[in-house]
Specification:
The protein is α+β, with helices and mostly antiparallel strands. Helices cover 35% and strands 26% of the residues. The chain folds into 2 domains: 246 residues, no CATH class; 98 residues, no CATH class.
Protein backbone atom coordinates (compact mmCIF):
# COMPACT_ATOMS: atom_id res chain seq x y z
CA UNK A 1 0.00 0.00 0.00
CA UNK A 2 2.91 2.36 0.72
CA UNK A 3 4.30 1.69 -2.75
CA UNK A 4 0.92 2.29 -4.37
CA UNK A 5 0.53 5.57 -2.45
CA UNK A 6 3.93 6.81 -3.64
CA UNK A 7 3.15 5.92 -7.25
CA UNK A 8 -0.33 7.45 -6.91
CA UNK A 9 0.94 10.87 -5.89
CA UNK A 10 3.74 10.68 -8.42
CA UNK A 11 1.09 10.15 -11.10
CA UNK A 12 -0.91 13.26 -10.20
CA UNK A 13 -0.52 15.70 -13.08
CA UNK A 14 -2.38 18.54 -14.79
CA UNK A 15 -4.98 17.78 -17.41
CA UNK A 16 -3.62 16.50 -20.73
CA UNK A 17 -3.02 19.07 -23.41
CA UNK A 18 -5.90 19.99 -25.71
CA UNK A 19 -8.40 17.65 -24.03
CA UNK A 20 -11.36 19.59 -25.36
CA UNK A 21 -10.08 19.51 -28.93
CA UNK A 22 -9.36 15.80 -28.72
CA UNK A 23 -12.80 14.91 -27.38
CA UNK A 24 -14.52 16.97 -30.07
CA UNK A 25 -13.00 14.67 -32.70
CA UNK A 26 -14.54 11.53 -31.15
CA UNK A 27 -17.70 10.30 -32.97
CA UNK A 28 -20.90 11.22 -31.16
CA UNK A 29 -22.13 7.63 -30.76
CA UNK A 30 -19.56 7.03 -28.00
CA UNK A 31 -21.46 6.23 -24.82
CA UNK A 32 -18.33 6.15 -22.65
CA UNK A 33 -14.95 7.88 -22.92
CA UNK A 34 -12.19 6.82 -20.53
CA UNK A 35 -9.33 9.33 -20.13
CA UNK A 36 -6.00 8.58 -18.47
CA UNK A 37 -2.46 9.89 -18.55
CA UNK A 38 0.07 7.81 -20.48
CA UNK A 39 2.57 7.69 -17.67
CA UNK A 40 4.34 4.73 -16.06
CA UNK A 41 2.73 5.66 -12.74
CA UNK A 42 -0.77 4.90 -14.02
CA UNK A 43 0.23 1.48 -15.32
CA UNK A 44 2.20 0.66 -12.14
CA UNK A 45 -0.84 1.31 -9.95
CA UNK A 46 -3.04 -1.13 -11.84
CA UNK A 47 -0.36 -3.71 -12.68
CA UNK A 48 -1.75 -7.12 -11.84
CA UNK A 49 -5.20 -5.71 -11.06
CA UNK A 50 -7.93 -7.84 -12.65
CA UNK A 51 -10.79 -5.35 -12.35
CA UNK A 52 -10.40 -3.70 -15.76
CA UNK A 53 -9.87 -7.13 -17.32
CA UNK A 54 -13.17 -8.28 -15.83
CA UNK A 55 -14.96 -5.23 -17.21
CA UNK A 56 -13.75 -5.09 -20.80
CA UNK A 57 -12.47 -8.65 -21.21
CA UNK A 58 -9.01 -10.26 -21.38
CA UNK A 59 -8.79 -10.02 -25.19
CA UNK A 60 -9.30 -6.24 -25.17
CA UNK A 61 -6.79 -5.80 -22.35
CA UNK A 62 -4.27 -7.88 -24.26
CA UNK A 63 -4.82 -5.81 -27.41
CA UNK A 64 -4.31 -2.54 -25.53
CA UNK A 65 -1.24 -3.84 -23.70
CA UNK A 66 0.48 -4.94 -26.92
CA UNK A 67 -0.46 -1.65 -28.56
CA UNK A 68 1.05 0.30 -25.65
CA UNK A 69 4.30 -1.64 -25.73
CA UNK A 70 4.81 -1.66 -29.49
CA UNK A 71 3.58 1.85 -30.33
CA UNK A 72 3.33 4.19 -27.35
CA UNK A 73 6.56 2.85 -25.84
CA UNK A 74 8.32 2.55 -29.18
CA UNK A 75 11.48 4.67 -29.12
CA UNK A 76 10.23 6.67 -32.10
CA UNK A 77 6.90 7.45 -30.41
CA UNK A 78 7.45 7.55 -26.66
CA UNK A 79 8.88 11.09 -26.57
CA UNK A 80 5.68 12.42 -28.18
CA UNK A 81 3.10 10.44 -26.15
CA UNK A 82 4.63 9.99 -22.70
CA UNK A 83 2.65 12.18 -20.30
CA UNK A 84 -0.09 12.84 -22.86
CA UNK A 85 -3.71 12.00 -22.11
CA UNK A 86 -5.15 9.00 -23.93
CA UNK A 87 -8.90 8.76 -24.61
CA UNK A 88 -10.49 5.33 -25.10
CA UNK A 89 -14.08 5.52 -26.34
CA UNK A 90 -16.62 2.70 -26.69
CA UNK A 91 -18.71 2.58 -29.88
CA UNK A 92 -21.51 0.23 -31.02
CA UNK A 93 -21.04 -1.05 -34.56
CA UNK A 94 -23.12 -3.13 -36.95
CA UNK A 95 -23.45 -6.91 -36.68
CA UNK A 96 -23.88 -6.79 -32.89
CA UNK A 97 -20.30 -5.67 -32.38
CA UNK A 98 -18.62 -3.15 -30.09
CA UNK A 99 -15.15 -1.70 -30.56
CA UNK A 100 -12.74 0.80 -29.06
CA UNK A 101 -11.32 4.00 -30.52
CA UNK A 102 -8.10 5.46 -29.14
CA UNK A 103 -7.60 9.20 -29.55
CA UNK A 104 -4.67 11.31 -28.37
CA UNK A 105 -2.79 14.52 -29.03
CA UNK A 106 0.88 14.09 -29.88
CA UNK A 107 3.49 16.24 -28.16
CA UNK A 108 5.40 19.06 -29.80
CA UNK A 109 7.64 18.16 -32.68
CA UNK A 110 5.67 15.11 -33.79
CA UNK A 111 5.74 14.49 -37.53
CA UNK A 112 3.86 11.87 -39.49
CA UNK A 113 7.14 11.07 -41.21
CA UNK A 114 7.88 9.08 -38.04
CA UNK A 115 5.34 6.52 -39.19
CA UNK A 116 7.02 6.31 -42.57
CA UNK A 117 10.30 5.55 -40.81
CA UNK A 118 8.65 2.79 -38.78
CA UNK A 119 7.26 1.32 -42.00
CA UNK A 120 10.80 0.34 -42.92
CA UNK A 121 11.10 -1.90 -39.87
CA UNK A 122 9.65 -5.40 -39.66
CA UNK A 123 10.78 -6.61 -36.24
CA UNK A 124 7.45 -6.18 -34.43
CA UNK A 125 5.03 -4.56 -36.86
CA UNK A 126 4.62 -3.73 -40.48
CA UNK A 127 3.16 -0.39 -41.55
CA UNK A 128 1.67 0.53 -44.89
CA UNK A 129 -0.13 3.70 -45.91
CA UNK A 130 -3.38 3.49 -47.82
CA UNK A 131 -6.36 5.72 -48.52
CA UNK A 132 -9.52 4.96 -46.56
CA UNK A 133 -12.68 7.05 -47.00
CA UNK A 134 -10.59 9.65 -48.82
CA UNK A 135 -8.00 10.04 -46.05
CA UNK A 136 -4.47 8.73 -45.63
CA UNK A 137 -4.44 5.92 -43.10
CA UNK A 138 -1.54 3.95 -41.67
CA UNK A 139 -2.35 0.25 -41.36
CA UNK A 140 -0.14 -1.38 -38.74
CA UNK A 141 0.01 -5.15 -38.64
CA UNK A 142 0.79 -6.37 -35.11
CA UNK A 143 2.32 -9.81 -35.47
CA UNK A 144 1.84 -10.75 -31.85
CA UNK A 145 -1.93 -10.24 -32.13
CA UNK A 146 -2.25 -11.11 -35.82
CA UNK A 147 -4.41 -8.00 -36.16
CA UNK A 148 -4.36 -4.77 -38.11
CA UNK A 149 -4.50 -1.44 -36.31
CA UNK A 150 -5.72 1.57 -38.29
CA UNK A 151 -4.20 4.97 -37.45
CA UNK A 152 -5.13 8.39 -38.86
CA UNK A 153 -4.13 11.98 -38.24
CA UNK A 154 -7.40 13.75 -37.44
CA UNK A 155 -6.06 17.28 -37.41
CA UNK A 156 -2.96 19.10 -36.24
CA UNK A 157 -1.34 16.23 -34.36
CA UNK A 158 -4.52 14.62 -33.00
CA UNK A 159 -4.33 10.91 -33.82
CA UNK A 160 -7.12 8.33 -33.76
CA UNK A 161 -6.70 4.59 -34.04
CA UNK A 162 -8.73 1.39 -33.83
CA UNK A 163 -8.59 -2.30 -34.66
CA UNK A 164 -11.90 -1.76 -36.46
CA UNK A 165 -11.78 -0.39 -40.01
CA UNK A 166 -15.49 0.53 -39.76
CA UNK A 167 -14.84 2.59 -36.65
CA UNK A 168 -11.92 4.39 -38.31
CA UNK A 169 -14.22 5.28 -41.21
CA UNK A 170 -16.70 6.69 -38.66
CA UNK A 171 -13.89 8.75 -37.15
CA UNK A 172 -12.83 10.04 -40.58
CA UNK A 173 -16.39 11.03 -41.50
CA UNK A 174 -17.12 12.64 -38.13
CA UNK A 175 -17.53 16.43 -38.37
CA UNK A 176 -16.54 18.07 -35.04
CA UNK A 177 -18.43 21.25 -35.93
CA UNK A 178 -21.72 19.40 -36.40
CA UNK A 179 -21.47 16.19 -34.39
CA UNK A 180 -19.43 17.08 -31.29
CA UNK A 181 -21.03 16.22 -27.93
CA UNK A 182 -20.95 19.21 -25.49
CA UNK A 183 -19.09 17.47 -22.66
CA UNK A 184 -18.15 19.51 -19.62
CA UNK A 185 -14.48 18.82 -18.91
CA UNK A 186 -13.12 17.94 -15.49
CA UNK A 187 -11.70 21.17 -13.95
CA UNK A 188 -7.90 21.29 -14.03
CA UNK A 189 -7.48 21.30 -10.24
CA UNK A 190 -9.80 18.33 -9.80
CA UNK A 191 -8.19 16.55 -12.73
CA UNK A 192 -4.77 16.92 -11.15
CA UNK A 193 -5.99 14.74 -8.25
CA UNK A 194 -7.59 12.10 -10.45
CA UNK A 195 -5.99 8.89 -11.71
CA UNK A 196 -8.41 8.75 -14.62
CA UNK A 197 -11.69 10.25 -15.80
CA UNK A 198 -14.87 8.86 -17.32
CA UNK A 199 -17.18 10.86 -19.57
CA UNK A 200 -20.68 9.46 -20.05
CA UNK A 201 -23.17 10.34 -22.77
CA UNK A 202 -26.42 8.76 -21.58
CA UNK A 203 -28.22 9.63 -24.82
CA UNK A 204 -25.90 7.18 -26.61
CA UNK A 205 -26.67 4.28 -24.26
CA UNK A 206 -29.58 2.81 -26.24
CA UNK A 207 -27.60 1.52 -29.26
CA UNK A 208 -24.82 0.33 -26.94
CA UNK A 209 -27.24 -1.53 -24.67
CA UNK A 210 -28.89 -3.16 -27.67
CA UNK A 211 -25.52 -4.74 -28.41
CA UNK A 212 -24.86 -5.78 -24.81
CA UNK A 213 -28.26 -7.01 -23.58
CA UNK A 214 -30.92 -9.31 -24.98
CA UNK A 215 -33.39 -7.94 -22.43
CA UNK A 216 -34.55 -4.58 -23.80
CA UNK A 217 -35.80 -3.55 -20.36
CA UNK A 218 -32.18 -3.79 -19.11
CA UNK A 219 -33.38 -3.95 -15.53
CA UNK A 220 -31.46 -1.47 -13.32
CA UNK A 221 -30.11 0.36 -16.38
CA UNK A 222 -33.58 1.32 -17.63
CA UNK A 223 -33.44 4.75 -15.96
CA UNK A 224 -30.13 5.52 -17.67
CA UNK A 225 -31.49 4.53 -21.08
CA UNK A 226 -34.24 7.16 -20.73
CA UNK A 227 -31.86 9.87 -19.50
CA UNK A 228 -30.21 12.54 -21.67
CA UNK A 229 -27.50 13.92 -19.40
CA UNK A 230 -23.72 14.14 -19.72
CA UNK A 231 -21.50 13.11 -16.81
CA UNK A 232 -17.88 13.97 -16.03
CA UNK A 233 -16.58 11.56 -13.39
CA UNK A 234 -13.23 10.98 -11.71
CA UNK A 235 -11.80 7.60 -10.71
CA UNK A 236 -11.44 6.98 -6.99
CA UNK A 237 -8.66 4.48 -6.28
CA UNK A 238 -9.73 1.27 -4.53
CA UNK A 239 -7.99 -2.05 -4.99
CA UNK A 240 -11.19 -4.13 -5.09
CA UNK A 241 -13.63 -1.85 -6.93
CA UNK A 242 -13.86 0.59 -9.82
CA UNK A 243 -15.62 3.69 -8.50
CA UNK A 244 -16.34 6.99 -10.20
CA UNK A 245 -17.90 10.13 -8.80
CA UNK A 246 -18.62 13.54 -10.25
CA UNK A 247 -21.26 15.81 -11.71
CA UNK A 248 -23.90 15.49 -14.41
CA UNK A 249 -25.01 18.23 -16.76
CA UNK A 250 -28.44 18.27 -18.39
CA UNK A 251 -28.44 19.86 -21.89
CA UNK A 252 -31.32 22.19 -22.65
CA UNK A 253 -34.37 21.02 -24.58
CA UNK A 254 -33.94 17.35 -23.67
CA UNK A 255 -36.81 15.06 -22.55
CA UNK A 256 -37.44 14.90 -18.81
CA UNK A 257 -36.79 11.42 -17.39
CA UNK A 258 -36.98 9.86 -13.94
CA UNK A 259 -33.39 10.79 -13.08
CA UNK A 260 -34.19 14.47 -13.68
CA UNK A 261 -36.20 14.37 -10.44
CA UNK A 262 -32.94 14.27 -8.50
CA UNK A 263 -31.65 17.57 -9.91
CA UNK A 264 -33.04 19.61 -7.02
CA UNK A 265 -31.79 17.18 -4.37
CA UNK A 266 -28.54 17.38 -2.45
CA UNK A 267 -26.04 14.56 -1.94
CA UNK A 268 -26.60 12.47 1.19
CA UNK A 269 -24.88 9.49 2.81
CA UNK A 270 -26.13 6.13 1.52
CA UNK A 271 -26.77 3.74 4.42
CA UNK A 272 -29.35 1.38 2.89
CA UNK A 273 -26.63 -0.63 1.14
CA UNK A 274 -25.42 -1.83 4.56
CA UNK A 275 -28.46 -4.11 4.93
CA UNK A 276 -28.45 -5.60 1.42
CA UNK A 277 -28.69 -9.43 1.48
CA UNK A 278 -25.43 -11.35 1.22
CA UNK A 279 -26.82 -12.98 -1.95
CA UNK A 280 -27.12 -9.63 -3.75
CA UNK A 281 -26.04 -9.97 -7.39
CA UNK A 282 -26.58 -6.33 -8.35
CA UNK A 283 -28.53 -3.34 -7.11
CA UNK A 284 -29.36 0.30 -7.68
CA UNK A 285 -29.68 2.73 -4.79
CA UNK A 286 -31.22 6.24 -4.85
CA UNK A 287 -31.09 8.83 -2.08
CA UNK A 288 -32.70 12.28 -1.68
CA UNK A 289 -32.20 15.11 0.78
CA UNK A 290 -35.85 16.27 0.71
CA UNK A 291 -38.27 13.29 0.50
CA UNK A 292 -41.42 15.44 0.44
CA UNK A 293 -40.21 17.55 -2.45
CA UNK A 294 -39.17 14.42 -4.31
CA UNK A 295 -42.65 12.94 -3.77
CA UNK A 296 -44.28 16.09 -5.18
CA UNK A 297 -41.91 16.17 -8.16
CA UNK A 298 -42.53 12.46 -8.79
CA UNK A 299 -46.31 12.95 -8.82
CA UNK A 300 -46.00 15.89 -11.21
CA UNK A 301 -43.72 13.89 -13.53
CA UNK A 302 -46.05 10.89 -13.53
CA UNK A 303 -49.00 13.13 -14.41
CA UNK A 304 -47.06 14.80 -17.23
CA UNK A 305 -45.94 11.41 -18.54
CA UNK A 306 -49.57 10.27 -18.81
CA UNK A 307 -49.37 7.75 -15.97
CA UNK A 308 -51.91 9.40 -13.65
CA UNK A 309 -54.85 7.22 -14.71
CA UNK A 310 -52.79 4.03 -14.39
CA UNK A 311 -51.53 5.17 -10.99
CA UNK A 312 -55.04 6.02 -9.68
CA UNK A 313 -56.47 2.73 -10.96
CA UNK A 314 -53.72 0.71 -9.27
CA UNK A 315 -54.09 2.45 -5.91
CA UNK A 316 -57.89 2.14 -6.11
CA UNK A 317 -57.59 -1.60 -6.76
CA UNK A 318 -55.20 -2.04 -3.83
CA UNK A 319 -57.56 -0.19 -1.49
CA UNK A 320 -60.61 -2.17 -2.63
CA UNK A 321 -58.83 -5.51 -2.21
CA UNK A 322 -56.86 -4.83 0.98
CA UNK A 323 -58.44 -1.77 2.55
CA UNK A 324 -55.03 -0.08 2.59
CA UNK A 325 -54.69 3.52 1.43
CA UNK A 326 -51.29 3.03 -0.15
CA UNK A 327 -50.64 6.73 -0.78
CA UNK A 328 -51.21 7.57 2.88
CA UNK A 329 -49.12 4.62 4.08
CA UNK A 330 -46.36 5.47 1.61
CA UNK A 331 -46.18 9.09 2.77
CA UNK A 332 -45.85 8.02 6.40
CA UNK A 333 -43.08 5.53 5.70
CA UNK A 334 -41.22 7.57 3.10
CA UNK A 335 -37.53 7.95 3.93
CA UNK A 336 -34.63 9.44 2.01
CA UNK A 337 -33.39 6.21 0.35
CA UNK A 338 -34.87 3.61 -1.96
CA UNK A 339 -33.22 0.61 -3.62
CA UNK A 340 -33.95 -2.33 -5.88
CA UNK A 341 -31.89 -5.41 -5.15
CA UNK A 342 -31.62 -8.52 -7.34
CA UNK A 343 -30.27 -11.66 -5.70
CA UNK A 344 -28.38 -14.57 -7.22
CA UNK A 345 -31.69 -16.41 -7.67
CA UNK A 346 -32.99 -13.41 -9.68
CA UNK A 347 -35.49 -12.39 -7.03
CA UNK A 348 -36.15 -8.63 -6.87
CA UNK A 349 -36.42 -6.91 -3.51
CA UNK A 350 -37.52 -3.26 -3.16
CA UNK A 351 -36.00 -1.56 -0.08
Amino acid sequence: MVGITVVYFKNLSPQGQRAGEVMHTIPANAALIFEFNNDDGFYDIFKGNTLFTSIIGPERISDLDVLRKQLLQNAAFSQYFTGQNIFISIHPLQNNHIDLLLTASAGKGFNLATLDELAKKTDHQYIVAETIAGKKCYVIYLKELKKRFYLINKDDGILAGSFSKDLIIQSIQNDPKKDAVPYTLIPDQQNSNSLANLYVNYAAFNPLFQQLFTNKNTDIFKSFRLFSGLSALTLNFKNDAVMFSGLTDIPKNTPIAYLNLFLNQQAVVNDLKNIFPSTTAYSINFAVSDPQKFKADLSAWQAKAGMQHQKDSLFKKIKSETGINLISEFNQLLGNEVAMVTTLTRKNWPL
